[in-house]
Every structure is written in structure tokens, then in C-alpha cells.
Amino acid sequence: MLLIVAGIMLIPASTFGQNNKNDNGYPLKVMSYNLRFGERATLEELAEYIKSENPDVVALQEMDVRTHRAQAPHQNGKDFITELGYLTGMLTAYARTIDYSGGYYGIGILSKYPFEKTQKVLLPIPEGSREQRAMLLADVELPGGKRFTFVSTHLDHSSSNVRKVQIEALNEALTNNPLPLIVAGDFNGKPDSPEINAGMQNWNRACNSDFTFPSNNPELKIDYIFYTPSANWTVKNAAVPKTQLSDHLPVTAEMELH
């Protein structure tokens, strides 16, 4: 049984890039990226960017499948997760959260490594919610037998109270997860908000404190990478790369699984 480690560990910038352990940990680069349903870029451009960052696993949000949006006519009818998987050469998992404009809208995962299993967990829809949200869980199998659970999520943007309820559900669903965990995504909450400051206090942060939204003039941090337990992970580096392919900036972390 996995017990979530008490207390949040905020990684000082001065410690990034230092290797504090030497026990043959498995290196992983993690990315989370809200794609804004491809309004600002083609899938080819997004795939080339992801490849340039060379992540091992990617949590993706605002992923369309066969929708027809007036804001993004160049994406009409496209299956984002399948095409990005093909263009990046990565394996894929997808979770629909709502039906939208003739297709689906949801979250996804790209991975260099195979999945042992995947699961969609719906998050609550308390009063004030705008739409259904979810978590997508994937148990990832690494060479040599190591495994971990990677989670992509996208919380409601409507209010802090709604997100507090959703984070309570996230914690309840993941508390007894048997494998080391990474949860990444667009949480739509600032670091000092109740849902992040208190709701995620039992998690460690792999991301730095740089703002992630809006991408052209970042003023808010709402995209994160969290992990637990601390004994299973070392964070080597973290970054918020600058790119204008979406209204969010991606977040990345170089980690080791022990």
C-alpha cells in the first residue's frame, strides 16, 4: 500500500541539476502541456515541438478527437491523440471527458514505454462546475521491470471551491495506489490557492515556480507536476520552456525513479 508522504517538498532552484543519489535510478523526462485544442498550431508543429523536448512521458490537456470548432477550423475532424502518437512515435492513451462539437474533448498521455494498464477516473461535478473533468491513469512499464503510475488531469476553471472538491477526489482515488506516482496537468489553481496549497500538501512538486499562463505574457502558475513518495524519486531539473504554440506554456521535469 502506498502512503502519501506528509508535507509538500518545494524544490529550491539551487538544487536542480544536482544528483543527490547514486543508486542506479531510472532517468525520466516528464512533460505536461495544455494544447488549447490546437487553435494556435498544427498537429505537426505540436509534434515537432514535443519531439524537440524529448520527453519520456507527456500529460496532455484540451485534446480534441473529430471535433469541428469554429475557433480551430484547421483541426476539424482530426484525432489529436492518434496523430500526435504517430507523428512523435510515442504510445498513446486517451480519456474523453465530454462530447463536443461532433466529437470528443478530453485528456491524453504520450509515452515512450508501454502501458500495463490505463484507467479513466471521473472527477466530481459539484455545484458551480462548468463541465465533466477526469484523471487518466497509466501504469507505465520501464525496461528492467520498474513501473510507475502516470496521471494526466485537467481541473475545472470555474472556481476554487469546485477544484477543492475535485482535488479531494483525486487524493482519495490515488492514496492506495501501489506504484510510485506522478500527477501532471492543468490544475487551474495558483500555488497559494486553497486547492493547491492545502489540497496538494501531501505531494512533492517536481515543477519550478515559473508562471505558465498566458504563454505570451505569463502571469499565473496553474500547470504542475507532482510526485510521491519522495523516497522513490529524485528531481534533477525543472523548466517552463517558452513557446507560443498554445495559450499555456509546457512544464517539464527531469527525474529519476528508484
Give the topology, please.
Elements: E1 26-34, H1 43-53, E2 57-65, H2 80-88, E3 91-100, E4 103-111, E5 115-122, E6 134-141, E7 147-154, H3 160-174, E8 181-186, H4 194-197, E9 204-205, E10 223-228, E11 233-239, E12 251-257
Parallel strand pairs: 1-2, 7-8
Antiparallel strand pairs: 1-12, 2-4, 3-4, 5-6, 6-7, 8-10, 9-10, 11-12
Helix pairs in contact: 1-2
Would you summarize the structure shown here?
This protein is α+β, with helices and mostly antiparallel strands and 258 residues long. It has helices at 43-53, 80-88, 160-174, 194-197; strands spanning 26-34, 57-65, 91-100, 103-111, 115-122, 134-141, 147-154, 181-186, 204-205, 223-228, 233-239, 251-257. The chain is built from four helices and twelve strands.
Describe this structure in words.
The strands form two sheets. The protein has a six-stranded mixed beta sheet. It has a six-stranded mixed beta sheet with strand order 5-6-7-8-10-9, covered by helices on one side. The N terminus is likely disordered. It is globular, with a radius of gyration of 17 Å. With 258 residues, the chain is of the alpha+beta class.
